[in-house]
């Protein structure tokens, strides 16, 4: 996705595809997905989150 891309012109399906691509494991996260790293960091801070619940926009 190019920097400065115009997101409002993308369809929900295109945005979902981009989100799925970004959720792949990353070397900088010790080969965890961003979601896995977030859950681990929240637990370390004593925060309980339910990874099965989508955030409310």
From TrEMBL:
Name of the molecule in the record: Uncharacterized protein
Organism, scientific name: Paraburkholderia eburnea
Lineage: Bacteria, Pseudomonadati, Pseudomonadota, Betaproteobacteria, Burkholderiales
């Amino acid at each position: 996705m190019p920097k400065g891309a115009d997101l409002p012109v993308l369809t929900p399906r295109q945005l979902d595809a981009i989100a799925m691509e970004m959720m792949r494991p990353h070397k900088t996260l010790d080969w965890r997905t961003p979601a896995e790293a977030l859950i681990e960091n929240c637990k370390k801070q004593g925060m309980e989150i339910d990874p099965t619940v989508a955030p409310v926009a």
